[in-house]
């Protein structure tokens, strides 16, 4: 898929998934516009670390990866997540288990992949973390609406009680792609804590709640 998708773009009329300009893959201008700078955006507990502001061209690139079948972007997005992942792992006494926020089963079927799990695996490989560091410990216990379909005010209720973690113990880091209201992260932290884990931090690729603070 990594080879054939860009080839198909070339044959069918390629354009940059970030800005739409003609060409193969992500254009130089979009690549230059994205510069990961991990920072704590919420003190917590647990602290929330974001790598980027959620603004153009990242918004279009994430959408292309998640909802338009551009799986070949996983390596690029994972590379942008990697600096934040490296920072939170280095702050721990030992490598914690890295837990992706799970997509709903209907979303996985529709997209053909669990995009956060794939993104985290790409970032973990880039950081050369131990095999098995990525641990999909969370499961959905009920159907939820896609967060983009729900108002900001209703997002907490949409996610509340929707996850369960496998029983266990030890230190974990929760990872998601985008933080808007934090409802998905809050529910993931709740489920992991209830099952016996200590959540050291939450990590996201991008901060959509306050992108202006990145100016």
TrEMBL record:
Keyword Transferase: yes
Pfam family, one: Pribosyltran
Residue span, Phosphoribosyltransferase domain: 137-210
EC number in record: 2.4.2.10
Keyword annotations of the record: Glycosyltransferase, Transferase
InterPro entries tied to this protein: ComF/GntX_DNA_util-trans, PRTase-like, PRTase_dom
Similarity annotation: Belongs to the ComF/GntX family.
A Gene Ontology molecular function term of the record: orotate phosphoribosyltransferase activity
Source superkingdom: Bacteria
UniProt key word DNA-binding: no
Name of the protein in its database record: Orotate phosphoribosyltransferase
